[in-house]
Structures are given as structure tokens and as C-alpha cells.
Amino acid sequence: MERNAFFKGLIVSTFLLISAIGLHAQTNPASTLTLRVDGLTAQERDALTEDLRNGTGLQLAYACVPAGLLVIAPADPLSGIDPRSAAAASIGRTVTSARAHEENLTLQQVEARCTNARNQ
User: Do 63 and 114 share a domain, yes or no?
Assistant: First the structure.
């Protein structure tokens, strides 16, 4: 009888732990870094993409050259990597810091600005 109670408790505990981890992942999505780069070129975008792939744990999640917008995110959303600090060196190697400005935009807002820039 004690053995059944132990296994039931173990199953309930495991279920609660998995539920808590899933809830944490849903309520705390990986942070992203959105940058507006004045005069962004396709070559700079490509260079940054390549640089981010070299051990930063980050990726270029979205890029729009006409609007000069870049969205940088962890390659693994559960990694906990802070894109601001992890991307700093890559950004510095590809564009001058005076041209890069952090933006507080959702992905939908970035896409809308990109559409507007392409239509001008």
C-alpha cells in the first residue's frame, strides 16, 4: 500500500513540476533585441548574421534592410541568454554604435515598419 502511495505522489509531483516549467516558459519568452540601424546595408546585415552564428548563441530572427530594423534573439529560446550583452561585440564589429539605436517594438510593429519602408 505504501508503495502505491509513493508512486502516486511521485507521478503527481512530476506532473506539477512539468506544468510549472511549461508555464514558466510561456510567461517568460526569450527576450529579443530590436535595433534600428541608420543606413543599414545588405552587406552589414549579412555580416552581422554570420558574426552572430559564431558562438554567441544568438541569431538574427528578423531583418529589414529598407527600414534598417534588426531583431536579434537567442538561438535557443530557453537558454536565458541576454541578447543586449551577448550581441554587443557582434554589433560593434559590423556597424558603428552611433548608427545603432535600440527600439522597443513588437515583431508586428517591426513588420509594419518594414512594409511601410518598402512601399515608399
Answer: yes
Give the count of beta carbons closer than 10 Å to the beta carbon of residue 93: 10
Rounded Cα distance, 46 and 20, in Å = 39
At 97-120, the pLDDT tens digits run 899 999 999 999 999 999 999 999
- Grouping H, G, I as helix, E, B as strand and the rest as coil, residue 6 is helix
- Residue 103 lies in domain: 33-118
Query: Looking at the predicted structure, is the pLDDT value of residue 34 above 90?
Result: yes
Domain count, the chain: 2
For the full predicted model, state whether its pTM sits above 0.90. no
Closest listed residue to residue 111, CA positions, set 61, 75, 48: 61
Distance CA 57, CA 7 (A): 39
User: Are residues 10 and 57 part of one domain?
Assistant: no
Report residue 54 as a C-alpha cell: 559564431
Residues 59 and 114 grouped into a single domain: yes
Q: Taking each helix axis from N to C terminus, what angle separates 83-94 and 42-53, rounded to the nearest 10 degrees?
A: 130
Phi-psi region of 62 (alpha: psi -120 to 50; beta: other; left: phi over 0): beta
